[in-house]
Amino acid sequence: MAFHGTFDHSLDAKNRLTIPSKFRAALDGIVFLVRGPDPCVSVYPEAVYSELAQQSLAGLNPMSAKARRMSRLFYAKADALELDGAGRIMLGVRHLEHARLTGREAVIAGTGNCLEVWDRAAWLSYDADLTAEASDLTAELDHPA
Questions:
Q1: Pick from 43, 61, 98, 141: CA 20 to 30 A from residue 120's CA?
Q2: Interval 85-118: pLDDT, tens
Q3: What does the pLDDT look like over 125-141, one tens digit per residue?
Q4: In 3-state terms, what secondary structure has residue 89?
Q5: Class of 6-140 per CATH?
Q6: pTM of this prediction?
Q7: Which SS3 state, helix, strand or coil, does residue 54 take?
Q8: Which contacts of 91-97 are long-range, i.e. CB under 8 A and separated by 24 or more positions?
């Protein structure tokens, strides 16, 4: 299942975020909350994240400094958990800090193989920039805007 769409949500008092119901079946079982390079938290199904990490590390000499750094990037910044009975995930302090979620207002954005959790104000700013860049981005792919 491809994750798509943008959804406004709020964190509750315990920093739990409700996942849109249409995605819960795809996130059944273990999910990974990942603090990546952007100021958001990515939510991956276990199989998707495991495959992504394995493919990214394949071919690297496991004793090299680069392989050790990449392993830390993929594994130390990923937390495994399950959705609770109400379809929620709990964001820990590291997740909140990384995504700069200082308030309760969040956006859940689908990006194909995962969902991303953004601070609403940060998402609105990023989305405006992305929209402004859309024509140039699609032109680079030789697709019409």
A1: 141
A2: 999 999 999 999 999 998 999 999 999 999 999 9
A3: 999 988 887 888 777 77
A4: strand
A5: alpha beta
A6: 0.89
A7: helix
A8: 91/11, 91/15, 91/16, 91/17, 91/33, 91/41, 91/117, 92/15, 94/35, 95/33, 95/35, 95/41, 96/15
